[in-house]
Amino acid sequence: MYKIIRKEVLAPTMKLIEVEAPEIAAKVLPGNFIIFRIDEKGERVPLTVADFDRNKGTITLIFQEVGYTTKHLGRLEVGDALLDLVGPLGEHLPVEGYKKVICVGGGSGTALLYPKAKAFHEAGAEVLTITGARTQELLILIDELKAASNELFIATDDGSFGHHGFVTDILQELLEKHKDVDEVVAIGPVPMMKACAELTKKYNVHCVVSLNSIMVDGTGMCGGCRVIVGGETKFTCVDGPAFDGHQVDFDDLMRRLVYYREHEARVQEHHECCGGKGGDCKCH
Amino acid sequence: MPLKPTKTPMPEQDAKERITNFTEVALGYTEADALAEAERCLDCKNPLCKQGCPVEVPIPEFIREIKQQNYSEAVNILKSKNNLPAICGRVCPQESQCEQYCVVGKKNEPVGIGRLERWVADWDMARDMQTEPVKATKGRVAVVGAGPAGLTAAADLVRMGYKVTIFEAFHEPGGVLIYGIPEFRLPKKIVKREVDYIRQLGAELKLNYVVGKTKTIDELFADGYEAVFVGTGAGLPKFMGIPGENLNGVYSANEFLTRVNLMKAYRFPEYKTPVQVGKRVVVVGGGNVAMDAARTALRLGAESYIVYRRAEEQMPARLEEVHHAKEEGVQFKLLNNPIEIIGDDKGEVVAIKCIAMELGAPDESGRRRPIEKAGSEWIMEVDNVVIAIGNSPNPLIPKSTPDIETTKWGTIVTKDEDGLTTKDGVYAGGDIVTGAATVIEAMGAGKKAARAIDKYLSSKK
Ligand SMILES: Cc1cc2nc3c(=O)[nH]c(=O)nc-3n(C[C@H](O)[C@H](O)[C@H](O)COP(=O)(O)OP(=O)(O)OC[C@H]3O[C@@H](n4cnc5c(N)ncnc54)[C@H](O)[C@@H]3O)c2cc1C
Ligand code: SF4
Ligand code: FES
Predict the structure, then answer these.
(1) Angle at A220 between CA A20 and CA B197, to 5 degrees
(2) Does residue A69 belong to any structural domain of this protein?
(3) Are residues A109 and A74 in the same domain?
(4) Across residues A192-210, what is the average pLDDT?
(5) Is the pLDDT of residue A124 over 80?
(6) In chain B, what residues touch A27 (CB-CB under 8 Å)?
(7) Sign of CA dihedral B130, B136, B137, B139
(8) Does one domain contain both A250 and A109?
(9) How many angstroms separate the CA atoms of A131 and A230, rounded?
(10) What residues contact B431, with CB distance under 8 A and at least 6 apart?
């Protein structure tokens, strides 16, 4: 069992938990992910490790409550425990040897971006970070990102904070202004990553994206997480999760991500005990 | 009493009934059945059956004890060589092993050795005995992978007095036995019981532990393990490389079976992992994996087809599985091969395009090579395609341990029969060495490696 020792509500549907997992904490690097299972009947779901403390033996996970399982996870409290936690999985992101990096995070992707921005910063790169969300109350990790970046830019779709518009607007400005950027890291909703990839291609700047495919095992044994990169089939869990954004077939990824939408609706209705209120009860 | 020419029949769930559930198809012998079948054994002086058994089970000896109704002695004899008899009795391809050599089989049906093995093992489980732990007096050994190879090596090493830790990537031990082979052929409670037995002997199990990620083999040595056995299996699914394989609705057999077996998607939504099965499912392949996938699809309510590029005689699946699949209504499109999977504008599978094949000259495997018949393409509407054309070895360990050499197929190179790898103190066995094979061969490799590890560590002292 892997105990939750800290919990924070970052935004209405965005939560942070710190979990005891000494063996994972000892090895994890920015870009790695874990797979968790809450209980005997639960699914195996991947989450990127947002932060870790090797001394304390803990890892921090940040997640947006989207489906049944992430909502269930969001209802757990300090003292509760996860039945299974395995990792660190995937290839970590190399951060050495870069001079100037732009980090772009959208929505909950910002949580995944943060450890990478921090690692680039600690490795000596100049880090320009852009974060965006639909509206101000969904912005997360602003102070942390400020500390991990040389400059922080903020965008909201509704203009309630920072730039009124998309993160890509700011990215374009920065790419115009800084001709010496050697890497762009974009993590967020698939359409955002796709837009960042297209934009950086125009400016001929390398762009890394982190993909959130549906997974089962996370060790390369099922192929469920396959994506098309540079015309070839890759397994996100072992070959990624980071890939060259210019090579990724984002449309294929988007199609694969919605395959279980109907099942998701059914699993949420399943809890008749609470009148099918989308699993907001604590009855199970 | 004259010898009965045929095996005592195995009581089974009726085919119509069983395709509506996931409970076991073969119900197992009664005591009377077992006694009747044991009587068919001639108790040969020079028992040929034994040479067909990769773990050298003393076959006539345990059957003799059944005849005399000394069942607990039959158990002891069986378990002296086979740590997982309830599993082997269910899934071993006896027709190409012990039963192939049985003298009775020369003129009649051979003795039902597998069925007797299963009966004895089930009798043993029913009495629910606790196993006394073995005291660890020797060094520490790490076993990577809790499939049949790893579990066998672990059990033997514990018995020899080693302190053994098994590291398993999944949240449940058993390897293919738990994630691959379906409930209706091998109930998971049986796998659990066999694993519990190995735990009771004294092996420690660390689940959710991916060696190569959580820790590397070198780090295990640094932690004080003196030898390592690698039994990580052949878990990397092969795809065909034809257009449309990435469409929604195309599964590797590994993914399809893992969702249904390990994650219990057949009990969705009580269990939260979904599996999507439409009206018609095509499974590509002719091995046990393909049969399991096709029969699983039936039970999930689909019309189920096997598409296989060679003829029935070349199918590598156990006879019993092919027979059961047919009985249940799986339809076989033999001598056919898919060339394209066709999708709609949502990116979901709607049809499969195949081409007829004919058999040409034998290839390296000795089987006649299938060749496409020009102009014989045909299309069938389908909702799902499950690819069961084989698995390659899992590359995680070799990748994280560069001094373990692999072949061009990705299998680990072993320097001798006992599974010694190119790295000192590291042994390997099972599918990771042979490529996808059988449960019993994996167990045999685990046994040999355990003996070799004992020799290696004893000589080091
Ligand atoms: C669907 C299916 C049906 C089959 N039917 C039959 C049958 O009827 N009869 C028969 O004899 N054979 C059958 N086989 C083949 C048989 O199951 C295998 O040959 C056998 O299981 C191989 O055993 P193993 O111990 O080498 O590997 P596996 O059973 O594959 O076990 C390997 C274990 O190692 C774990 N692992 C992998 N990598 C790591 C890592 N880095 N760190 C930690 N753990 C790791 C895996 O999670 C797994 O649990 C079937 C196979 C399949 C897939
Ligand atoms: S060969 Fe057949 S008859 Fe002879 S001992 Fe073995 S099982 Fe019995
Ligand atoms: S999640 Fe199964 S192969 Fe990647």
Answers:
(1) 65
(2) yes
(3) no
(4) 96
(5) yes
(6) 213-215
(7) positive
(8) yes
(9) 28
(10) B147, B149, B176, B233, B234, B391, B393, B437, B442
Please indicate, yes or no, whether residues A55 and A133 belong to a single structural domain of this protein.
no
How far is the C-alpha of B428 from the C-alpha of A56, rounded, in Å?
35
**B408, B273 contact by CB (below 8 A):** no
What range does the domain containing A78 cover?
A: 2-89
Question: Is B269 within 8 Å of chain A by CB?
Answer: yes
Question: pLDDT-derived band of residue A271, with 50, 70 and 90 as boundaries?
Answer: low
Q: A128 and A11, same structural domain?
A: no
A105 and A33 together in one domain: no
Atom of ligand 1 nearest to the CA of B170: 47
Strand partners, A175: none
Residues in A closer than 8 angstroms to B253, CB to CB, are none
Q: Note whether residue A273 is domain-resident.
A: no
State pLDDT tens for residues A31-52: 899 999 999 999 999 999 999 9
Question: Ligand 3, closest atom to CA A235?
Answer: 4
**Cα torsion angle, A131, A134, A140, A142, sign:** positive
CB count in 10 Å sphere of residue B217: 24
B87 lines ligand 2 (CB under 6 A): no
Atom of ligand 1 nearest to the CA of B436: 19
Residues above pLDDT 70, as percent of chain A: 95
Are the beta carbons of B165 and B204 closer than 8 angstroms?
yes
pTM: 0.92
Instruction: Please answer yes or no on whether A266 and B273 come within 8 Å at the CB atom.
Output: no
Tokens of B401: 């341990």
Q: Would you say residue A283 lies in a domain?
A: no
**Among B300, B317, B391, CA closest to A223:** B391
Mean pLDDT along residues B390-400:
87
CA A143 from centroid of its chain's CA atoms: 18
Tell whether A50 and A168 lie within a shared domain. no
Q: Nearest-CA residue of chain B relative to A228?
A: B246
Expressed in angstroms and rounded, the spacing between residue A20 Cα and the centre of ligand 3 is 25
Element (H, E) at A164: strand A163-164
From CA B380, how far away is CA B338, in angstroms rounded?
A: 10
Q: Confidence class of residue B1 from pLDDT cuts 50, 70 and 90? A: low
Q: Among candidates B258, B263, B229, B270, which has minimal Cα distance to B448?
A: B229
The reply to whether A199 and A85 lie within a common domain is no
CATH of residue A81: 2.40.30.10
| Nearest-CB residue to B258 (from A83, A222, A252) | A222
pLDDT in tens, B272-319: 999 999 999 999 999 999 999 999 999 999 999 999 999 998 899 988
